[in-house]
Amino acid sequence: MNRKILIVVITLVAFVFLIGILFSNEGLYFISPKDELLKLLAIPAEKNYNASYSFSAGGSGAYTNIQSYISVQNETVMYYKYTSNNRATNTLKEYSSDKGWLNCKDAPGAGPTTRTETIYLNCSDDYKTMTEDYIKNKFFSEVSSTQNVTFFFNTNGNSCFHLKNLNSYGNYNICFDRDKRLVSWDIPYDRGSQRWTKNLTKR
Asked: What is the tens place of the pLDDT at every residue in 76-117?
């Protein structure tokens, strides 16, 4: 009987060990999804990458469409472009590291409006909100104060975390690849979406 018990114990230990290896390869390490996400967000941002952002929402005749792009080399923002348009406004922000702000203005939109003049803005360092470093720090602060974090694999095989009611914007999905690189975050809406995506290079 003692030998049978010993065999059962050894089998259970081996099973737990194998499961531990499997989860370690996926980066879960038997810790909560929230703690794992915080670990991934604490990894320093990549030095070189391109990323894009989109936001679209509409309903009852109103709409908003935002597109932006950023290129970072050696942790320096080399190029950034932001466009936003709706019935009232048409905003353009464009920056390059060698020439500074090429455009920073808000023109009248396509719909009926009482404003006809173009407003020139103070863009300052607006491009920083598109950088991975800013995004990771922002999420780290917000995730630290929430408990509604669950884990899932998306259709691309990336490790993703669903954050319910993270802030006033709603439910977030944050995804990382097998190399633990941040690849995307998004917020789905009933009539639109908001998404940041990094263009990855193979390792």
From this structure: 999 999 999 988 889 999 999 999 999 999 998 877 766 788
**For residues 135-152, average pLDDT:** 91
Cα distance from N-terminal residue to C-terminal residue, the chain: 53
Q: What whole-number distance in Å separates Cα of residue 90 and Cα of residue 113?
A: 12
Q: Where are the extended beta strands (E) located within the chain? A: 49-59, 62-73, 76-86, 89-96, 100-108, 119-120, 149-153, 159-167, 170-176, 182-189, 192-199
pTM over 0.85: no
In CATH terms, the fold of domain 34-199 is outer membrane lipoprotein receptor (LolB), chain A (2.50.20)
| Dihedral angle sign, alpha carbons of residues 26, 29, 30, 32 | negative
Looking up tokens 């909100």, which residue turns up? 129
Percent of the chain topping pLDDT 70: 79
**Contact at 8 Å (CB) between 186 and 193?**
yes
- Residue 141: strand, helix, or coil: helix
Residue type at 162 in one-letter notation: H
| Helix or strand run (H / E) with residue 8 | helix 2-26
- Cα dihedral sign for 137, 167, 50, 152? positive
Q: Could you identify the residue written with the tokens 């348009």? A: 85
Domain ranges of the chain: 2-30, 34-199
